[in-house]
Specification:
The chain has 11 helices and 11 strands. The protein is α/β, with parallel strands linked by helices. The longest helix has 22 residues.
Length: about 325
């Protein structure tokens, strides 16, 4: 294991241990004022809608106002910085995607430490990716695509939503697992990436569920595989990557809740319980299902373990792929 990965692993472990240390019984009087959930993305997006939905239900459960504070900018780091520097009193939380796991390895300089400055509270939801191909490529599944890639090294391209994006990292992870070397072509948006598949400029892309499912069902692109441990209900004929012999893509993307370092652990546990109760609400559950999101709501310890694994996983991918660090 590379030295910098061991350091990240150790930092997460220390942060979790510190969070679990003896804390005053502060949850007895918490909350007694407004709780803020910072979303490092613009209003109207998927993460923001998730925060609004959960915030409304948690407000009912906690008997205190819960507001969503959208702070987009700097690739999601602006909102994270705000929470990292907030008072650790249980009134500020960060709702971020699994992109949080790669920040330490992607950025050369950050105004906060994504690992040691936060306490993982709970994984809120998880989603999987559609691994899509172009209809102009004869490959009908991942095995056939890999066979072509090995026969003609450097001849196939894959698209992403930008260097260092989650979609880029998962495609590089697939490269490593499959033992191929596809050429990366970055785009400015998911829409542009899909267009490149339709025109045949790229032959592979990892797509978010909603985008991928809709375009496969419209027969604009081909579903070569899906991540996760089970096939998607919306694409029952598209096998998982694991079914096709490509192990290591069982975990897709997630959205998780984080607290500033030093937040009393009894408050962290209380927030997780309220979050889990909100996720179990039938209306919330039905809405999540309709959008292809799987409710999780696991414990701080369970989420910390997954976060630690993802930090190490993405660090290896970034190092192997020689992805340059961002300023």
């Amino acid at each position: 294991m590379p030295v910098h990965v061991r350091r990240l692993w150790l930092a997460v472990s220390l942060a979790v241990a510190a969070a679990g240390a003896a804390q005053p019984a502060s949850a007895q009087s918490w909350p007694n004022r407004t709780v803020r959930i910072v979303v490092p993305y613009a209003p109207g997006g998927g993460v923001s809608l998730l925060a609004q939905t959960l915030g409304t239900k948690m407000q009912e459960l906690m008997k205190q106002p819960v507001i969503v504070d959208n702070r987009p900018g700097a690739g999601g780091t602006l909102g994270a910085e705000i929470v990292a520097k907030s008072s650790a009193d249980g009134y500020a939380f960060l709702l971020h995607t699994s992109a949080m796991s790669s920040l330490s390895s992607l950025y050369s300089k950050l105004p906060f430490d994504p690992v040691s400055d936060f306490i993982p509270v709970s994984m809120v939801v998880s989603t999987q990716f559609v691994i899509a191909g172009s209809l102009k490529t004869p490959a009908t599944d991942l095995r056939e695509l890999v066979a072509v890639a090995k026969e003609k090294p450097g001849a196939l391209n894959y698209g992403s939503s930008g260097p260092g994006s989650t979609l880029h990292l998962f495609a590089e992870l697939f490269d490593s697992i499959a033992g191929v070397n596809l050429v990366h072509i970055p785009y400015r948006s998911d829409a542009a990436m899909v267009t490149s598949l339709i025109t045949g400029d790229t032959q592979l892309a990892f797509l978010p569920q909603a985008n991928g499912i809709a375009n496969v069902q419209a027969n604009l692109i081909r579903g070569l595989g899906v991540t996760g441990t089970a096939r998607m209900e919306a694409l029952p004929n598209v096998p998982t990557a694991s079914e096709q012999g490509f192990k290591g893509l069982e975990i897709g993307s997630w959205v998780g809740l984080f607290a500033p370092r030093g937040t009393p652990y009894d408050i962290v546990q209380a927030v997780q319980r309220h979050l889990a109760a909100a996720l179990a609400d039938p209306k919330v559950h039905d809405w999540l299902s309709s959008t292809g999101q799987l409710a999780v709501g696991n414990t701080p310890g369970e989420f910390a373990e997954q976060f630690r694994a993802d930090v190490a996983r993405f660090a290896k991918v970034i190092e192997r792929s020689h992805i340059p660090k961002l300023d």
